[in-house]
Amino acid sequence: xxxxxxxxxxxxxxxxxxxxxxxxxxxxxxxxxxxxxxxxxxxxxxxxxxxxxxxxxxxxxxxxxxxxxxxxxxxxxxxxxxxxxxxxxxxxxxxxxxxxxxxxxxxx
Length: 108
Description:
The protein is mainly α. It has helices spanning 3-18, 40-46, 52-59, 65-70, 83-102.
């Protein structure tokens, strides 16, 4: 399990507890963890008339950057060479997890 898979597992556990069937609400075609309106929390927030930060609050996450990183919603800009590349990897991991949960074996 890589670092993003571990962090995402924390995020999934939280989402499963607070937002049942959350994975059915995510549009994989636009999912992009680097954009607050297209990331997991951004998309879930949009469906609830809020945004990334509003969803963090609804999930009980504090407003710190580290809380978002620990749950696979952001990458640590201070410790990566290319945040863009890291967000791409993070997005791929979320897509893979969501596809698996939906029972999709090919790219949607």
